């Protein structure tokens, strides 16, 4: 027993794998180790130790996740009149700003992720925004980005050599080492044929709202930050 070190162990904790000899020691070990005794279904298992039981456990875990997600999608609050009213309100406000905002049906990932809101007092959108840096295979999610914020200021915490976070700066080293004039911000043009994908180039010196005007947005904007000097497959409209 790893708790009292006196008696022969009879039980093994499913979570931390500690051996215990009795119910008293089990309770004591939970108290001392702050252990809840529930097996961690997502714990790392090395390839050498991976067995059919681990495979079955993973399969059942994925089934549980699927059932939970399906139940959440069917929850009455998702289909409530208030939720539909909020979506209609957002689309209507976007239309007044000359933005064609479109929402996806319940169950789609982008529909669940979207946290975009409109502040009626300030008369502005607070956007859910995704930044994609293809050259470094990095993605970042930003929440509550005001529509009057300039794109260059939005990118500063990521690619500015001085103001960016040290961890992010290291990951996006290719961008921070390049001059700002090489940075290009693109947004995919929606409702085009699959074999004719094109992108709009956005103006980094203008606000998010100015850049979104006249464009189709599905749920929330996704901005691709690329470097002009590096080859990529993104074709800008007009090229």
Automatic annotation (TrEMBL):
Function: Required for box C/D snoRNAs accumulation involved in snoRNA processing, snoRNA transport to the nucleolus and ribosome biogenesis.
Coiled coil residues, start to end: none
Pfam families the UniProt entry points to: BCD1, zf-HIT
Species per Swiss-Prot/TrEMBL record: Tricholaema leucomelas
Record GO cellular component, one term: nucleus
Keyword field: Isopeptide bond, Metal-binding, Phosphoprotein, Ribosome biogenesis, Ubl conjugation, Zinc, Zinc-finger
InterPro entries documented for this protein: BCD1, BCD1_alpha/beta, Znf_HIT
SUPFAM superfamilies in UniProt: HIT/MYND zinc finger-like (SSF144232)
Gene field: Znhit6
GO biological process: box C/D snoRNP assembly; maturation of LSU-rRNA from tricistronic rRNA transcript (SSU-rRNA, 5.8S rRNA, LSU-rRNA); snoRNA localization
PANTHER family linked to this entry: BOX C_D SNORNA PROTEIN 1, BOX C_D SNORNA PROTEIN 1-RELATED
Subunit relationships: Interacts with FBL, SNU13, NOP58, NUFIP1, RUVBL1, RUVBL2 and TAF9. Interacts (via HIT-type zinc finger) with the RUVBL1/RUVBL2 complex in the presence of ADP.
Domain of life of the native organism: Eukaryota
Protein name: Box C/D snoRNA protein 1
Family that this chain belongs to: Belongs to the BCD1 family.
GO molecular function per UniProt: zinc ion binding
Record domain HIT-type: where: 1-35
């Amino acid at each position: 027993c790893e708790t009292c070190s006196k008696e022969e162990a009879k039980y093994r904790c499913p979570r931390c794998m500690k051996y215990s000899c009795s119910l008293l020691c089990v309770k004591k070990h939970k108290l001392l180790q702050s252990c809840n005794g529930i097996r961690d279904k997502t714990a790392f298992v090395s390839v050498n130790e991976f067995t059919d039981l681990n495979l079955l456990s993973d399969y059942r875990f994925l089934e549980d996740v699927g059932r939970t997600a399906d139940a959440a999608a069917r929850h009455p609050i998702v289909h409530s009149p208030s939720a539909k009213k909020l979506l209609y309100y957002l689309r209507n406000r976007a239309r007044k700003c000359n933005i064609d905002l479109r929402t996806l049906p319940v169950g789609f990932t982008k529909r669940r992720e979207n946290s975009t809101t409109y502040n009626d007092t300030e008369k502005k959108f607070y956007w859910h925004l995704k930044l994609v840096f293809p050259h470094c295979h990095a993605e970042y999610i930003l929440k509550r980005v005001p529509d009057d914020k300039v794109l260059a200021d939005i990118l500063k915490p990521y690619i500015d050599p001085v103001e960016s976070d040290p961890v992010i700066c290291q990951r996006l080293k290719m961008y921070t080492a390049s001059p700002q004039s090489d940075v290009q911000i693109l947004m995919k043009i929606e409702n085009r044929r699959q074999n004719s994908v094109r992108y709009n180039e956005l103006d980094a010196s203008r606000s998010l709202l100015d850049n979104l005007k006249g464009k189709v947005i599905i749920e929330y904007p996704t901005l691709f930050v690329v470097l002009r000097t590096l080859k990529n497959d993104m074709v800008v409209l007009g090229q």
